Amino acid sequence: MSTGPARKQTISERAMARAQSSGAGKNPDGSAPYLDDLNEEQRAAVVATEGPVLMLAGAGTGKTRALTTRLAHLLFTGRAQAWQILAVTFTNKAAREMRDRIAALVGPSVEGMQWLGTFHSIAAQILRRHAELAGLKSSFTILDADDQARLAKQVIEAANIDSKRWTGRGLAMIIDGWKNRGLTPDKVPANEAYFFADGKAIGLYKAYQARMTTLNAADFGDLLVHNLTIFQNHADVLAEYQNRFRYMLVDEYQDTNVAQYLWLRLLAQKHKNICCVGDDDQSIYGWRGAEVENILRFEKDFPGAKVIRLERNYRSTPAILGAASGLIAANTARLGKELWTAREDGEKVKIRGVWDGEEEARLIGDDIEAEQSKGRSLSEMAVLVRASFLMRAFEERFNMLGLAYRVVGGPRFYEREETRDALAYLRLIRSPDNDLAFERIVNKPKRGLGEKALQTLHKIARSQNISLMVASRQALESDDLHAAARRSLVNFLDTVERWARDAKDMAPADLAELVLEEAGYIEMLKNSKSPQAPGKLDNLKELIQAVSEFDTLEGYLDHVALVAERNENQTGGCAWLMTLHAAKGLEFPIVFLPGWEEEIFPSKRSLDEKGNAALEEERRLAYVGITRAEESVRISFAANRQIYGRWQAAIPSRFIDELPEKHVDVMSEPGLYGNTMGDLASHSRFDGEKLKDDAYYDNPGWRRARAAGARRASTPVQIEGSARAVSVSAPGRSKYKTGQRVFHQKFGYGVISLIEGQKLTVEFEHSGAKKVIDTFVEAA
DNA sequence: TCCGAGCCACTTTTT
DNA sequence: GTGGCTCGGA
């Protein structure tokens, strides 16, 4: 966190330092000193210890501070021992931050908080204690998304279903969806499976779970679902935990899914001291099973709940908050909050229209350099995009400029191929029954044990219900394998067994090194011509480094399964580049928000899939983006963008229209949307020269857009076809005819083949058929 | 068993 | 435009 983008601690460091030095002492008036620097609402959230509490904490309102102080308060006042408090977060990072900040308040007694962690790590902890109640051994392995998909694929193939049409990843997603809702195979409503593999999904789910039991494995979803099953079937176990957790605290409650919600509700039944913290306006993980509903109906679920709103924002200027509030006000499904700040008015939110994505990257690059020359550090600036494919233009441009930047997100260390291979070796050594690990590395590097040999082994294994390792030994006794394969296999098995013996009296890091070397894995990479090979070798070195921090192999493997951390090499002085999702919880003085175009943001695909609910989630994502900024927000949109190698015309995002005019400042290049527009369009908000600010909002196009906006507010589902300032042409009849020859600035000449309202399908002479908005072309 | 050409599909991704 | 996956020939 210290070199990370977030600098939240600055606000409260003073208070923390004071609290730490004074411990649980008292002010002269008898109040606790650690409460002094909290504002009234924060203090209320800290001292309301009994009964259910919902803390609605807007962006930048000092949530973590209130939350950690609350935990410290419970300890200071002796209401609970450290081990009687359950505190759950979603990310390891959040858990770590919370632990550190509580430690700053209470000192070493934080060590006793063994139930502070992520949903998954705590559920795993509980499951290990009662694994046999879920049909597992307590040494079960935790599978990640990749393993899940692989396993799902095997299940599909075993059922003789075409695994190209119905992919393992697809099935894994469906199963995940069910697990997110706490549904075991017997509880899935029958009508929910019809769309996958002719309705066989439930059967496949059953088979998948059977496989999991055989493998003694649990995926992420299982951790929670098994917990639920155990709690529901074993009242004594549930009672044990209900009694233990006198106080519960949940961070980012708006992101909980149904399974997590059920889990919390079961555990809270006894003492009912549950404090959920969240912000309905920042719920952006609906597509992963998060239910905003959980936070919206908290007061119903927990009768008598106190609701405390943190609305004083310490992060952003009034202009930024005003823009963000105005935007989010268009959502209907919200509890309602109004952020305010005591800060001085700052610059307005800048909106800029540009010709295409490359120009956008160029201008943002220029802006960043300009700010840098004014004395800003690069690390104070961030570019936040809707989707990772939008990052490329920026990376290219920044590389060209030699501008130091850092991408947050992307492939994570433990998801990389080479790391996963190395881990598979280690897992196989620890548990020879781990078929997934066996399969992964038996022929990596190449040992002449390919598909054919593996099939043979699988057949033996399945017929006798034994692991691949055991099946391999048997295969050696028979003639099922070629002599060459047999030789190779003997060698492999013996080596693995020797490693297992070595493992007993070797430091895990040394073992890892030995294994990678002897397996020929290092050599394979050294001989590889692939440009990625040196990087992979570096990653393996890093892995060995990571292993060396553990005393036992078991300890390390367990850590890895649940802590899939990003490989963040800490280098200061970089501009930040990340997705909006990755930016949640962070803050930066200057934030660039490119790509605000219809179909990209809001994402067409989301809207197609989930309609208005998705639109609201996209809007929350926009809200998250804007509220990351402390001083300056710069939104941009491009009239053209290359997506997957094809040029696409785009119109500005509806979210731009939704920003309150008094907080924004529009700069746009002349002629962006062509010069053939009708009367209404010729003075669009995004066309023409820079006028005086006020004039921007006093023209026919803008007035019309406002009227449309007002209508839109009353009819929430209006995804296409609304008349807005930016969709320049008059709706309805097009002035073009099918068969007419037209010219487009980017695509050149072509002939219109289809007209749908203002959308034309044009067969371009050089770029093929494309859909364009009619104002982008002119008669040729 | 291995390798390259051709084909498709492609958001967001805390654990 | 790119990577991941499959199929056909060496």
From TrEMBL:
<dbReference type="Pfam" id="PF13361">
    <property type="entry name" value="UvrD_C"/>
</dbReference>
<dbReference type="GO" id="GO:0000725">
    <property type="term" value="P:recombinational repair"/>
</dbReference>
<keyword id="KW-0238">DNA-binding</keyword>
<dbReference type="GO" id="GO:0003677">
    <property type="term" value="F:DNA binding"/>
</dbReference>
<dbReference type="GO" id="GO:0016887">
    <property type="term" value="F:ATP hydrolysis activity"/>
</dbReference>
<comment type="similarity">
    <text>Belongs to the helicase family. UvrD subfamily.</text>
</comment>
<dbReference type="GO" id="GO:0033202">
    <property type="term" value="C:DNA helicase complex"/>
</dbReference>
<dbReference type="GO" id="GO:0005829">
    <property type="term" value="C:cytosol"/>
</dbReference>
<keyword id="KW-0413">Isomerase</keyword>
<keyword id="KW-0378">Hydrolase</keyword>
<feature type="domain" description="UvrD-like helicase ATP-binding">
    <location>
        <begin position="36"/>
        <end position="317"/>
    </location>
</feature>
<dbReference type="InterPro" id="IPR014016">
    <property type="entry name" value="UvrD-like_ATP-bd"/>
</dbReference>
<feature type="domain" description="UvrD-like helicase C-terminal">
    <location>
        <begin position="318"/>
        <end position="585"/>
    </location>
</feature>
<dbReference type="InterPro" id="IPR013986">
    <property type="entry name" value="DExx_box_DNA_helicase_dom_sf"/>
</dbReference>
<dbReference type="GO" id="GO:0043138">
    <property type="term" value="F:3'-5' DNA helicase activity"/>
</dbReference>
<keyword id="KW-0067">ATP-binding</keyword>
<dbReference type="InterPro" id="IPR027417">
    <property type="entry name" value="P-loop_NTPase"/>
</dbReference>
<dbReference type="GO" id="GO:0005524">
    <property type="term" value="F:ATP binding"/>
</dbReference>
<protein>
    <recommendedName>
        <fullName>DNA 3'-5' helicase</fullName>
        <ecNumber>5.6.2.4</ecNumber>
    </recommendedName>
</protein>
<dbReference type="InterPro" id="IPR014017">
    <property type="entry name" value="DNA_helicase_UvrD-like_C"/>
</dbReference>
<keyword id="KW-0547">Nucleotide-binding</keyword>
<dbReference type="Pfam" id="PF00580">
    <property type="entry name" value="UvrD-helicase"/>
</dbReference>
<keyword id="KW-0347">Helicase</keyword>
<feature type="region of interest" description="Disordered">
    <location>
        <begin position="1"/>
        <end position="35"/>
    </location>
</feature>
<dbReference type="InterPro" id="IPR000212">
    <property type="entry name" value="DNA_helicase_UvrD/REP"/>
</dbReference>
